[in-house]
Write a structure and sequence with these properties.
Largest sheet: 4 strands, mixed
Number of helices: 3
Number of strands: 4
Helix content: 25-40%
CATH superfamily: STAS domain
Strand order of the largest sheet: 1-2-3-4
Radius of gyration: 12 Å
Shape: globular
Length: about 100
């Protein structure tokens, strides 16, 4: 079963709306595809909306860091919408909350 995350561009920012758990290869591939769609379209500020994510593991974190590294290499910025629950706890535990600015 293939699935993809919705993306949109506005005000010089790309947005990826991630739904479901970010904990397996299929979810990671969907994130990579959504990121590439925005990145190849010229976006260098990309916001991840993780509001609908309940579970994230090292696989999902690794994919997010891959996006971060690719943007940073071109002076881009990877941001997150305000986090909550398990995802927020995970980001705080790994000190990722200080790495990714929050987009209001």
């Amino acid at each position: 079963m293939d699935f993809e995350y919705q993306t949109e561009s506005s005000d010089g920012k790309g947005l990826i709306m991630i739904e479901g758990d970010l904990d397996n290869e299929q979810a990671g591939e969907a994130l990579r595809n959504a990121f590439n769609k925005l990145y190849n379209g010229g976006e260098r500020t990309i916001v991840l909306d993780l509001g609908a994510v309940e579970i994230i593991n090292s696989y999902g974190i690794g994919k997010i860091l891959m996006c971060y590294k690719r943007l940073k290499a071109e002076d881009g910025v990877l941001m997150v919408k305000p986090l909550s629950g398990f995802v927020k706890e995970t980001f705080e535990l790994l000190m990722l909350d200080s790495l990714f600015p929050v987009d209001s």
